[in-house]
Design a protein that fits this description.
By secondary structure, the chain is an alpha+beta fold. It has 16 helices and nine strands. Strands 2-1-7-6 form a four-stranded antiparallel β-sheet. The structure holds zinc ion (ZN).
C-alpha cells in the first residue's frame, strides 16, 4: 500500500528534523559530559578551582558550536578534511599552522597593467631541503630562497596579518624580502591567498587553545581559564570524532547522510551514562603538544572507514522498518534511529564510541593540567566561583540569538 503524506505532516517532520540538527557534534549532551568528567582527572591543586566551576565548564561546552552562526572563521576550527591532503599518515601535510601557511599560501603580484603573476605557491615549489626552497618562476626560470628568509617573511607578513581568505600584503615588505628574486618595481599590489583553511584547521586551533590557556593560568585570570577550558574541551571532543577528520563528514559522498549525528549524538545519548566507564585515571603531562594533537586526529581518521562501512552494512542487514523510530524530546516528536538499531551498530563497532569519548576526557584533563604546569602551577585556591557579568550575559544572549535566527557560516559539522 502506498502511504500518503499530508503536507502538514511533511512540514512537521521537516521542521522537527531540522530542529534535531541544531545541536550536533557529540551533541550538547556529549560535549557537556566530556568537559564535566575531565574535571575528575585533575590533581587537587586544580580540582579545587574546577570543581567549584564545574557547571560553568559543562554549560559552556558547546559555545564554539554556537559561534559558527556568528562568524565564518569558526566552522573550520572544528574539523580537518585529511583526505584532501593525501594518504595516511599525511607526512607531506605540515603539522603546524605556520608550516601550512608557508606551504599553502599563494602570493600574487598584480602589476600596473593588471597582469597577475603567481610568485610564491605550492605548485611552483620544485624542491626543498633543510636550508633552501627552490621555486619555479616565470616559465623556466628558477629561484632559490633561503628558508630562514622565507620563514621570517611568513611570520612577519603572513601570520601576523592573516585573518581572511585573501588579503593584501604590504608591497614594501614584500620587496624587502623578495625583490632580488622577484623584481616587483612595476608591481603595485601583492595579494596572498590561503589555500588550506577551508579544509579545516582543527589541529592548529588546538595549539592555539593550549597557548591561550597557559597564558590565562600565568595571569591567574579565573574567567579566561574557565572560558578557554570550556572551549578547549569542545575542540578536543571534536578531534576524537572520526567524521571530523574527513571530507565525507556526514556520509554525503557515500549515501549515508545523517551518520554524523547518529554516531556522535544518538549513540552517546543512549548509552554513555549507563554503560561507559569514565574512570580514566589521572591527567598526565603532555611533553610534545603538536605530536599529541596529531596522534588524536590521525587515530580518529583511521577509524573513518569502520564508521562508514559498518553503518552501510547495518543498513542492509537490519530490518528496514526497525531502523527509525519516533522519539519524544522536550515535548517534540523527533525521528531518529531506534534504540535496537543504534545498539546493534554500536556493538559492531566494538566500543569505538566509548573509547573515543573517554579518550576525549583523558586528553582534555591532561591538556588542562599541562597548561597549568607550563604556567608554573599557580595557586588556584583563592580564585573564586565565577559568575557572569552583565556584559557577558548580554554577549551570551546575542550568541544564542544568532543561533536561533541564522544559518551556520561554513559547514554544519
Ligand atoms: Zn564542534
Amino acid at each position: 500500500m502506498k502511504k500518503t503524506i499530508y503536507p502538514t505532516t511533511l512540514f512537521l517532520v521537516l521542521f522537527l528534523f531540522q530542529s534535531a540538527h541544531l545541536n550536533l557534534e557529540w551533541g550538547f549532551f556529549g560535549h557537556r559530559l566530556i568537559n564535566r568528567m575531565a574535571v575528575f582527572t585533575l590533581p587537587p591543586g586544580m580540582m579545587i578551582f574546577y570543581k567549584k566551576n564545574i557547571e560553568y565548564v559543562s554549560d559552556h561546552a558547546v559555545d564554539p558550536d554556537k559561534r559558527r552562526y556568528a562568524t565564518k572563521h569558526e566552522a573550520v576550527r572544528h574539523y580537518i578534511d585529511l583526505d584532501i591532503w593525501g594518504e595516511y599518515p599525511f607526512e607531506n601535510f605540515p603539522r603546524t599552522q605556520i608550516g601550512a601557511l608557508m606551504k599553502y599560501t599563494d602570493v600574487f603580484v598584480i602589476d600596473k597593467q593588471n597582469d597577475t603573476t603567481l610568485v610564491l605557491g605550492n605548485e611552483l615549489r620544485i624542491d626543498e631541503d633543510k636550508f633552501f626552497i627552490k621555486f619555479r618562476y616565470q616559465e623556466n626560470k628558477e629561484v632559490v630562497i633561503p628558508k630562514k628568509k622565507f620563514q621570517s617573511f611568513f611570520y612577519n607578513n603572513i601570520l601576523a596579518k592573516y585573518y581572511d581568505d585573501v588579503w593584501e600584503l604590504d608591497l614594501d615588505s614584500f620587496q624587502l624580502y623578495f625583490d632580488e628574486f622577484f623584481p616587483t618595481s612595476n608591481g603595485y599590489k601583492v595579494i596572498a591567498e590561503d589555500k588550506f583553511s577551508e579544509y579545516g584547521v582543527l589541529p592548529f586551533h588546538l595549539m592555539r587553545m593550549q597557548n591561550k590557556l597557559t597564558k590565562a593560568f600565568e595571569n591567574k585570570d579565573a574567567k579566561s581559564i574557565l572560558r578557554i577550558s570550556a572551549d578547549y574541551g569542545h575542540y578536543i571532543g571534536d578531534a576524537h570524532v572520526p567524521l571530523h577528520t574527513t571530507e565525507n563528514y556526514n556520509g554525503q559522498l557515500t549515501n549515508q547522510i545523517g551518520i554524523h549525528a547518529f554516531w556522535e549524538s544518538r549513540i552517546p545519548e543512549l548509552f554513555a551514562e549507563e554503560e561507559y566507564d569514565f574512570f580514566v585515571g589521572k591527567a598526565e603531562y603532555v611533553e610534545n603538544k603538536v605530536d599529541y594533537f596529531w596522534d588524536i586526529i590521525l587515530t580518529s581518521h583511521q577509524l573513518v572507514d569502520s564508521v562508514l562501512l559498518i553503518e552501510a552494512d547495518m543498513v542492509k542487514a537490519f530490518p528496514e522498518d526497525k531502523q527509525f523510530c519516533f522519539d519524544n524530546r522536550n515535548d517534540l516528536t523527533v525521528r531518529t534511529q531506534c534504540r535496537a538499531f543504534a545498539e546493534a551498530y554500536s556493538d559492531r563497532m566494538q566500543g569505538m564510541v566509548e573509547e573515543r569519548m573517554t579518550s576525549s576526557v583523558y586528553s582534555l584533563g591532561s591538556l588542562w593540567y599541562t597548561a597549568w604546569v607550563d604556567a608554573g602551577q599557580p595557586d588556584l585556591a583563592d580564585l573564586g566561583n565565577e559568575e557572569l557579568t552583565e556584559r557577558e550575559k548580554k554577549e551570551l544572549e546575542e550568541l544564542n540569538n544568532s543561533v536561533r535566527s541564522g544559518d551556520i557560516k561554513g559547514r554544519e559539522h
